[in-house]
Every structure is written in structure tokens, then in C-alpha cells.
Amino acid sequence: MVNIFDCYKRNPSLMECVKVDIDAKVSKVSIYIKGGGVPMVDNGDGVYDLKGSGYGSRLINIFSLEFITEAVKDTTKFKHV
User: Fold this and answer.
1) Would you say 69 and 80 are in contact if contact means Cβ atoms under 8 Å apart?
2) Which domain of life is it from (predicted)?
3) Nearest 5°: CA angle at 51, between 47 and 44?
4) Pick from 26, 18, 28: which is nearest to 67 by CA?
5) What is the tens place of the pLDDT at every residue in 1-15?
6) Three-class SS of residue 57?
7) Full residue range of the structural domain in which residue 67 is found
8) In the prediction, which pLDDT does 25 show?
9) Are 37 and 48 in contact (CB under 8 A)?
10) How far apart are CA 54 and CA 75, in angstroms?
């Protein structure tokens, strides 16, 4: 969520919609962003990482059984598991 707010602060006109869904029964949190989103970079082998990812996403990844990031740019979908 911190990355989302950072993107919004940089350029509010790019952030159209943010939806957060928390399903406590299956311990799942989903975040949908329509707009600028979180920057992703190709690390050279076709895998995309979050650019400028700080401690927030790293800690979520460490303490989660599964951590998936999906992003769509134009018509290309990127997925990081």
C-alpha cells in the first residue's frame, strides 16, 4: 500500500482506482490498481521485479506462503511469483 500512495503522490492524475479485498477465511489480500501502478523492471532474464521495492513488500514476501505480483502495461501482462 505504501508503494501505491507513493505513486499517487508523484502523479495523482495517473491513479484512477484502488480496491483492496481482504478474505480472512483463506488468509488472502488482493490489491487492484487502475492507473499508474507500481513500477516494474526487467531484471534481464524475462522476470520482472518491483522497482524501488522497500521493506514493505519484502516483509510481506517473507511472512507469506505465497506472494504474487501481476501488472499489465498496454497489452502485456507481467507476473512475478
Assistant:
1) yes
2) Eukaryota
3) 30
4) 28
5) 666 777 778 778 878
6) helix
7) 2-80
8) 94
9) no
10) 27
